Amino acid sequence: MDLIKQIFDSGVVGCGGAGFPTHVKLKASPEILIINGAECEPLLRTDRYLMIHEAEKLVSGVDLICRELSIPEGRIALKKTYTKEIEALTAAIEKLHSKVQLHLMDSFYPAGDEQVVVYEVTGKVVPPAGIPLDVGAIVDNVATIIAVADAVSGIPFTEKYLTVTGENCSMWDFKDQLEYEAVEEAAIKPVQLTKYYTETKTGDIPNLDCFGWWTTHSDGIEVTEKPVCITFDTISYQQAKENWHTPLIVVFSAFDKLVNGVLYDEYAVIRSDAYAWNAGAGALETETAFESKWTSWDQWLQDNKNGVKASVTAVRQENTILITLENDGVTIETQVQIPMEKNLPVCLSLSGELCYISNIRIK
Q: What is the Cα–Cα distance from 33 to 66, expressed in whole angstroms?
């Protein structure tokens, strides 16, 4: 019987929380199937329990889906600290002669977030308001894959696993067979971010404290036939650990020249680490250059933590926006095509993640 029909007949839906029908998600043609085994919240133990006690069923489920749906690669993403889970899965992979791979992640928050998992495994960023399939990936929950394996055996999807936990309390009289596990005092220690915010304005527009993804943007700076040059200082938080914890540029149109403003339409996002994507219907072309002083991404990120100067130049040529973004020896030149029917102002906005942008000058 067709696998998709078996999943549909068994009523399998995503066990990660959203409950999206699994047969619909698996109808796509991704490049990779990622199983999210990195618990997003520190005290959750559901997926960890299943990876230990249902390891063979999980691995065989991934193999089955990849084989039947012609998905080239299947990976289980979990944290390096999950030693028992890694041992169980490794044994299952060897026993079943499986092609499934384990992707071991550092223990940070929120490692189990779907978009974070996609980036950690593939190095690709899911666009804002997008889904993993936009970058060729499908992400499924551990329990979901086990439910798919059950579906092939004719077992309907009627049960859901959950974690019962608490703090400074006792729980008893459970009416089912449970496995008890002592939880460490702090699965993930709180991180105090060192902020650099000192004043609201040191340049032509207010400074930006980009403490989280998509949390802070500058007002739009319109791009016309007259070239515009934006220079600024940037310093990444000391807790920054990824190349994209640096400034980025958003290319968009809006009646009020604001990100997510009136009649907002987004065309491209360009990151300092030479990665860009188009968010609209327009085409996007990029070219990257590295100066001789550039040695490695690790050193580049460290330079950003120490503080660097960066610049953006942009000009409009009919319906093409030409943008050059330079940050500490890395230059990315981008051409963004704007739909012909758009009559709203096309703008740039500065943003970023885990970085502080100041002394913004517009010429």
A: 7
16 contacts 144 by C-beta, under 8 angstroms: yes
The closest alpha carbon to 249, from 318, 320, 331, 312, belongs to 312
pTM of the model: 0.51
What is the rounded CA–CA span in Å between residue 351 and residue 335? Answer: 19
Asked whether residue 192 carries a pLDDT value surpassing 60, the answer given is no
Token pair 């449970």 is found at: 178
Question: Which two structure tokens, joined as six digits, stand for 291?
Answer: 């100066």
Contact status, residue 232 vs residue 220, Cβ threshold 8 Å:
no
Q: What is the pLDDT of residues 24-79, one digit of tens each?
A: 888 888 999 999 998 877 678 889 989 999 999 999 999 999 999 999 999 999 99
Helix (H) or strand (E) holding 55: helix 55-68
Separation CA 233–CA 208 (nearest Å): 10
**pLDDT tens-digit readout, 97-129:** 999 999 998 877 777 888 889 999 999 988 877
Distances in Å between the Cα of 184 and the Cα atoms of 45, 50, 167, 319, 323 are 12, 19, 11, 57, 49
Residue 243 confidence (pLDDT) = 87
Give residue-wise pLDDT tens across range 232-248.
999 999 888 888 899 99
Residue 3 token pair: 């696998």
Give the torsion sign (CA, 63, 66, 70, 71).
negative
Q: How far apart are alpha carbons 137 and 126 in whole angstroms?
A: 10
Instruction: Report the alpha-carbon distance of residue 136 to residue 70 in Å, rounded.
Output: 13
